[in-house]
Write a structure and sequence with these properties.
The structure is a single chain. With about 100 residues, this protein is mostly helical. The chain has a domain of about 55 residues. Helix content is about 50%, strand content about 0%. It is built from five helices and no strands. Helix 3 packs across helix 5 and helix 4 packs antiparallel against helix 5. The protein is elongated. It starts with 12 loop residues before the first helix and ends in a 5-residue tail after the last helix.
Length: about 100
Amino acid sequence: MNMGEGHMMVVNAQLRACAKCKGGDTVGVVMELDEDKRTVEVPAYLKKIINSDAKAKEFWAKLSFTHQKEYLREIDGAKRPETREKRIAAMMDALRKGQRKH
């Protein structure tokens, strides 16, 4: 991000701690292009549910890594089984309609 006098990059607290620097410090950075394909590990129970519906399966395969990851994070983050089931149902409805998670 250009802030008028050069470029600035936002770095989270964990990275700052590992680099032994603090907010506002000037540091040298080497950036490399990460070309590795990102994939999510879909739990077997959820893979079975997704694969049971052709439209949902087809759209799931088209989703980006980030969209797939967010669906899994939301479902796995449910504390109650009822909440998990509700979130799975909402995901399946969206996948059948060809809609991404917002």
